[in-house]
Amino acid sequence: MTLEDQTSNHDPAAVDTSDEVDADGARRHGRFTSEVMAGGSVVEKSDDELVGGVRGALGVAAIVALIAVLGLFNVWWLVFVVGVLVAIFFHELGHFLTARWTGMKATQFFIGFGPRVWSFRRGETEYGVRALPLGAFVRIIGMNNMDEVEEGEETRTYRSKSYPKRMLVISAGSIMHMLIAIALLFVVYVADGEVVARDGAEIGVVQDDGPAQAAGLREDDVVLAIDGEAVEGSSDLGRIVQAGEPGDRVDFAVLRDGAEIVVPVTLGANTDEDSTLFGKSYIGVASGTYFETIEHSVPAAAGNAVVDIFPTSWEMTKGAVKVLNPVNIFTHVAGTNDDIETRPT
């Protein structure tokens, strides 16, 4: 039989079967991908198959008990885990709400991954808890081109929506985090006021029998200037003092109990032979940034919370980078970082 005969006699059904196998493989791949993302089965359950009752209650109680055990070892572990779970919940809630608002169909909203522990259905969505409280997920139909959807629901898939709507749903989790941060700032501003860094160096520790104590400087005094030279922070305080000579008499402009006063101080000499500042002038204080608390009305607190979220986020990012710097990690772990209270000014 020639190649042409083999081709002409080829059974068309065999080709169709092969195509069906490919299509079935694509469906399996799509379902597998979804299950990996969800950490468990994403097959919709009938109302009779939902996990509830005593079994569901026991499952949820076991997870809560497991999380609570963390508090027995370290309460901050418990606070951290609960905080992360709350943040994840609101992150996914952002995806869920925007998906519903833009006309997408969300079939599942679960806390955790793995097997279902407890679930219920309201409307077209199954809500519940899964065995591993390590995250959360929202399942929206048609998240990828290989997802199969029921006839007539293609218009409610993620893939069918416009680009702006898809971007809104994808970014909604991060937007929700920002809204939570604004709300928390608002609550803090209303309850305790806004803490703002001001010019000056606030004295935190006064050395016994040191020049500062002899002159009458106290803890919580804020040094604003020395001999007319402005002090913007604790580094300025140290620089100006060390630029003088032991025995010099200088005037400290100090903010104390809301009133500005002048305190004459006679500079002493650092007698610590192990210090790099040995022999230099000093007054015997440890100082830090001066913070002032500003009370706000409710409208002002709301406005400031919105405005402050961006610089606050940037400062937190810079702080994290500084703390996680390899050099800083080493110095803190090794204990070689300087202690400001043992480094007199």
Explain how this protein is built.
The N and C termini lie far apart (102 Å). This protein is 47% helix and 24% strand. The chain is an alpha+beta fold and 345 residues long. It contains nine helices and ten strands. Strands 3, 4, 5, 6, 7 and 10 form a six-stranded antiparallel sheet that branches. A two-stranded antiparallel sheet has the order 1-2. A two-stranded antiparallel ribbon has the order 8-9. The chain folds into two domains: 166 residues, no CATH class; 149 residues, PDZ domain (Pdz3 Domain), CATH 2.30.42.10. The N terminus and C terminus are likely disordered. Strand 6 and strand 7 form a beta hairpin.
Whole-number mean pLDDT:
79
Number of domain units: 2
Structural category is alpha+beta
Task: Assign an overall shape.
Answer: elongated
Find the count of extended strands (DSSP E, 2+ residues). Answer: 10
N-end to C-end Cα span: 102 Å
For the largest beta-sheet, the strand count, sense and barrel status come to: 6 strands, antiparallel
- Portion in beta strands: 15-25%
Q: What count of helical segments does DSSP give? A: 9
Give the oligomeric state.
single chain
Pattern of helices and strands: HHHHEEHEHEEHEEEEEHH
Low-confidence stretches: 1-15, 337-344
State the share of residues found in helices, binned by percent.
40-55%
CA radius of gyration: 33 Å
